[in-house]
Amino acid sequence: MKSIRVGSGAGTANDCIEPALVLLEHGNLDYLFFECLAERTLALANLRKKHDPQKGYDQQLQNRMGKVLDVYKRVKPNTKIISNMGAANPLEAARIIDAMCRERGLNLKVAAVIGDDVLGKIDKYYGLEVMETNRPLDKYRDILVNANAYTGCAGIVKALEMGSDIVITGRCADPSLTVGPCVHEFGWEMDDWKHLGCATIAGHLLECGAQVCGGYFADLDRKIVPDLWNVGFPIGTIYEDGTIEISKVEGTGGRIDEMTVKEQALYEIQDPANYMTPDVIADFTNLEIKEIEKNKVRVTGGCGKQKSGKLKVNCGYLDCYIGEGEMSYGGYGCVDRAKLAGECVVKRLERNGTKYTEIRVDIIGYDSLYTNCVEAQMRSEDPAECRLRVAARCADKENAEKVAYEVEALYCTGPAGGGGARRSVREIVSVASVLIDEKDVILEVVYPGGEKA
Amino acid sequence: MKLRDIAHSRTGDKGDYSVISVIAYDLKDYPKLVREVTPEAVKKKFGTIVKGEIVRYEIPKLGGLIFNMEHALGGGVTRSLALDAHGKTLCYVMLDMDLTEN
């Protein structure tokens, strides 16, 4: 039966690069994809493009692709690359990669998939309700940064059909990076829901990189992971009938067994019977996950249903600033001194009239993760050190700075023995999502010279 | 007995939802998970962390449960004031739940 080998080279924008190079060199891959986008990453990429129209692609593009193309030059793998590293500017990303190929004397055909950016027709959508807040999108009109639709595999399929070796997308849905090559290779119809469901499940298992191979898994006792430092990235062998096998390159660290695959299968899916993507609604509830040899797991029983016909659009907007400061306390009574320091900061912010809409006083090492009501049940004794953290949401940068400085001022004015102050002020771009008709989005394949397929 | 004695867990996030899986190490313990790790018990354990509703999905074939916890991430990853804005560490609250001994 026909099958393809798909490798996952990144599960997040700043993921390790070396395991992907090992995969490319030793994985005998047909395809290698890099999943590098998140809601906020894309909004920030759009901000960079606003400042400079030739920016807006993934910030690690040159670094990552440079290393990948060096491997190409050295071992000439018969592997095609797919990535959403185009972020807000897939065409510019494709141009950069094209130039990098030429520099290395590599004759690789690079293509960009565009069309996910719907900001140009946003007027049409102002009446839609934002999923996060139930307010009309119109309320965000003046502060919108970007609007990008989660798109499916169609653009990738088209680019592969045109013979592209490297396909760069913008806001392509994560699993679609895997569904694309499957549809292209197996000739599945775009309403073959069962198979699209299986490929989506394969994509879901692979899209977080090492997370299916023992990454983000290690713990005491029953969750020991060999050589975690050298954890391998996964290979999905996907068969024409929808069967998936997950493996990794021999000699890499990590582990692949029923536990690691189950943990990734159920990761972040809100409703396991209805996992909605632009391609299909995948059903995970009848999956069978079986270890067939050491570090090799077979997954069968995937299913799919007709897609909704709607696409989720992420609209980034300029929201607020967060001013933040930290200070450490150690030894006897450190938690009490950190609490006293926090009280001082809050009162002083009131004294100098700092305006904020929300404030949080945490003691890192004591109650910053779960709030005290939960941590009190989990705590055995007070720590040897802890760290005060004050963070406040402000409408402008000036007020956010006041919050951050007020923590640093604890050096001379706070309780005894505070040290290691850090402060930061961040501009926050938040995301509002709406659902639009999929017919509104037309994906196109564009080559570095600007010509369209 | 703690939940961590019979199950493992991983946290994900979607907007202001924390999505936490609980998976039995041994399939024979799955019915106990269904019986005792109820949305009500989870809500009680998480206290003020989860401000909205908790919906549970069951995946018996994999011995797993998925909890969708609404308004658990301080307004969502992109704007939360929390140190761990994604709430990635929340699965260890889940694993700290007390279960009956049998």
Q: How does this structure look, described?
A:
The complex is a heterodimer of chains A (453) and B (102). Chain A contains 12 helices and 18 strands. Chain A has 453 residues and is an alpha+beta fold. Chain A has 2 domains: 272 residues, no CATH class; 119 residues, Alpha-Beta Plaits, CATH 3.30.70. In chain A, the strands form 3 sheets. In chain A, strands 11-12-8-7-1-2-3-6-4-18 form a 10-stranded mixed sheet, sandwiched between helices. In chain A, strands 5, 14, 15, 16 and 17 form a 5-stranded antiparallel sheet that branches. A 3-stranded antiparallel sheet of chain A has the order 9-10-13. In chain A, β11 and β12 form a beta hairpin. The radius of gyration of chain A is 24 Å and the shape is globular. The two termini of chain A are 31 Å apart. The model of chain A has no long low-confidence stretch (mean pLDDT 96). Chain B has 3 helices and 4 strands. In chain B, 19% of the residues lie in helices and 27% in strands.
Primary descriptors:
heterodimer; A: 453 residues; alpha+beta; Alpha-Beta Plaits; ten-stranded mixed sheet; 18 strands; 26% strand; globular; B: 102 residues; four-stranded antiparallel sheet
Question: How would you briefly describe this protein structure?
Answer:
The complex is a heterodimer of chains A (453) and B (102). Chain A is α+β, with helices and mostly antiparallel strands. Chain A is 30% helix and 26% strand.
Number of helices of chain B: 3
Number of domains of chain A: 2
Overall number of structural domains of chain B: 1
Backbone structural class of chain A: alpha+beta
CATH-derived architecture of chain B: 2-Layer Sandwich
Low-confidence stretches of chain B: none
Radius of gyration of chain B: 13 Å
Number of strands of chain A: 18
Following the backbone from N to C, one meets helices and strands of chain A in this order, namely EHEHHEHEEHEHHEEHEEEEEEHEHEHHEE
In CATH terms, what is the fold-level topology of chain B?
Answer: Alpha-Beta Plaits
Q: Round the mean pLDDT of chain B to the nearest integer and report it.
A: 96
- Give the proportion of residues in helices of chain A: 25-40%
Strand order of the largest sheet of chain B: 1-2-4-3
